[in-house]
Amino acid sequence: xxxxxxxxxxxxxxxxxxxxxxxxxxxxxxxxxxxxxxxxxxxxxxxxxxxxxxxxxxxxxxxxxxxxxxxxxxxxxxxxxxxxxxxxxxxxxxxxxxxxxxxxxxxxxxxxxxxxxxxxxxxxxxxxxxxxxxxxxxxxxxxxxxxxxxxxxxxxxxxxxxxxxxxxxxxxxxxxxxxxxxxxxxxxxxxxxxxxxxxxxxxxxxxxxxxxxxxxxxxxxxxxxxxxxxxxxxxxxxxxxxxxxxxxxxxxxxxxxxxxxxxxxxxxxxxxxxxxxxxxxxxxxxxxxxxxxxxxxxxxxxxxxxxxxxxxxxxxxxxxxxxxxxxxxxxxxxxxxxxxxxxxxxxxxxxxxxxxxxxxxxxxxxxxxxxxxxxxxxxxxxxxxxxxxxxxxxxxxxxxxxxxxxxxxxxx
Length: 412
Prior knowledge:
By secondary structure, this protein is an alpha+beta fold.
């Protein structure tokens, strides 16, 4: 019997049991849908994060306190007080870091802000005016801090658009005072709708002079970050080495393995994020693939039931000349077609749900989330579903092919 006839016979067998065929492939559809969604959303998340990192420029360098984390349990080590005023002063000297163009201390945390009867919990950032150049944003109304205000621990603040909406509604917030941690801060500037940038949602921030944040809001004498910008992209690596040597000398560190800080360039961040998101996507895909194994076992069980129910059909086909190979191919093709159809449906459903999810994330979460078409995931899903049909269809097909035509015709 030709392959064309085998396929026609297999399709006829599936068509005779439409409901059972549909229920049989359900496990495959769910598994492939999950895989496609995970890979699509994983690629979308990776693109979003990488774009956020790239948005602050290749010349930007972050100096972070604590030892560089090597795993999830190490992140607590970054919450240390190793970066202080002396480090800021030394790094700012040209003889120590010749290619440093800008340096900005950063302190941050969450506190409740209030105005009248209204309250809101924004992210509080203590910065200098360099944030406008590094993050490419500026107040839509009002002004920035003056150097005198920064040096004098002034009680002034610049607020994001969401903070303005929550605390002031339609009122003009300029020159009004908001209260944070018992301190009254006069609003001198309001940002426009900036959205997400470099991991920060600037719509939900209150920016104050870093000196004010240290003394009056957080009560600390250290920095959570130092953001450095090199004069050119070519000098980034040289600047990194100069920063390390300056801080090691300041902290009396002779063994680099004992560093109580680490320096991260945008290239480092891109590599780290890419590795983490790829590993996470692979892990979740592997978990979702378990459902394919479950679906494959279900297909094998249903095919075995089908073989039993169609015993007389098998005997009749053998009586009119069908060989064991013909019977084997018929039932094997039925299993492969079932999983193949399930794979196609799962791919279409997974892509549709991923597209809807990307639209919802963009509209309601305020993220610049792009829909990603995972071609590798589509090929993987179709290949795996077909392979599942082949692997789990062999045993029922062989059972059908081995049936004696005489016994099969006598079967009731």
